[in-house]
Amino acid sequence: MTTLGIAMVGHAFMGAAHSQAWRVAPRFFDLPVQPVMAVLCGRDPGRTRAAGRLGWADAVTDWKSVLDRDDVHLVDICTPGDTHAEIAVAALEAGKHVLCEKPLANSVAEAVAMAEAAARAAERGVRAMVGFSYRRVPALALARDLVAQGRLGRVHHVRAQYLQDWIVDPAAPLSWRLDKDKAGSGALGDIGAHIVDATQFILGDTIAEVTGTMETFVPQRPVAAAHSGLSGTAVSGETGPVTVDDAALFLARFAGGALGSFEATRFANGRKNALRIEVNGSAGSLAFDFEDMNVLQFFDGTEDASVAGFRRIVVTEPQHPYVSAWWPAGHGLGYEHAFTHQAVDLVRAVAEGTDPSPSFADGLQVQRVLAAVETSAESRTWQQV
Ligand code: SOE
């Protein structure tokens, strides 16, 4: 196989980010097979055709039709969570590789079915990956490398926050992200899932138990007339219920003994996309904030105390993960590059016949953490994952 035909389902924010990745990946990275943007799929014919400008050769309205096409080898799922399981399982059974946006599913039961389908497909050389894109931000990949090299020693603390503010205004309208039937959960699954995956990735460890609390600060909102960006344009008068959490906070114990605190909120006024992680170990610490995404702060506790201190590593050197494919040192990367790196790693795994990471099994494990947080918030108890 010299080409890998892609069908992408969904073309909103995530669809645009994935389109950019498929378009750019083969132009900056040496890939063993060439991704070809064969067909875009969306429910609305006009909007789907218009979204074809993102680089797609063809546009269709029925996702099932792409499973019969010989020019499609991989299905990229960028739809809301309520459709992930059906599309992913059908695609894997049809022998298509799958990339599925996070969180993997809307429930543990769906995620189990998806992970089982992925395990069966892997026996036939068919691969599945879940899109936790932040793993591919070079500074976070470097953070994992430092932990794996033992530079932090034994990890004691993980402090993770994902702070946004796009619905702090009670007049911000309803969107699918505020609808439990479509999204599964709110801040917890949408952005909390990212910090669960990112911290487990950095530590090479998994969360074993949690206790949490969740809140919906604004339970009724205007119904959106049209959707744009994350929320939409409100119509006057009509309101509807918010059926998900606006914020989710939880404590965690990792299997390896580290203690974690997690905060995911869409009400952190002034914080736009502040995915922040700090890890403290016996030999050092590291800290990251996506709002300064080309930087990793590293404290080397083995240095002489008279000169030791957090150092600001600008993660733009060719030695840093993924960076050498891009610009000369110091020129920096953005949000979209993590999606390109995700596409690159998936194409390489497919070509090499290896299982990509994060796998659907990894996505299922994150789903179990999210479910445990919800159960804990309802029952006000600690929950095993
Ligand atoms: C909205 O909260 C959102 O777009 C998430 O859905 C994405 O996963 C995250 O990368 C940015 O914020």
From TrEMBL:
<dbReference type="InterPro" id="IPR055170">
    <property type="entry name" value="GFO_IDH_MocA-like_dom"/>
</dbReference>
<dbReference type="InterPro" id="IPR050463">
    <property type="entry name" value="Gfo/Idh/MocA_oxidrdct_glycsds"/>
</dbReference>
<dbReference type="GO" id="GO:0016491">
    <property type="term" value="F:oxidoreductase activity"/>
</dbReference>
<feature type="domain" description="GFO/IDH/MocA-like oxidoreductase">
    <location>
        <begin position="142"/>
        <end position="286"/>
    </location>
</feature>
<dbReference type="InterPro" id="IPR036291">
    <property type="entry name" value="NAD(P)-bd_dom_sf"/>
</dbReference>
<dbReference type="Pfam" id="PF01408">
    <property type="entry name" value="GFO_IDH_MocA"/>
</dbReference>
<feature type="domain" description="Gfo/Idh/MocA-like oxidoreductase N-terminal">
    <location>
        <begin position="5"/>
        <end position="131"/>
    </location>
</feature>
<dbReference type="Pfam" id="PF22725">
    <property type="entry name" value="GFO_IDH_MocA_C3"/>
</dbReference>
<dbReference type="GO" id="GO:0000166">
    <property type="term" value="F:nucleotide binding"/>
</dbReference>
<protein>
    <submittedName>
        <fullName>Dehydrogenase</fullName>
    </submittedName>
</protein>
<keyword id="KW-0560">Oxidoreductase</keyword>
<dbReference type="InterPro" id="IPR000683">
    <property type="entry name" value="Gfo/Idh/MocA-like_OxRdtase_N"/>
</dbReference>
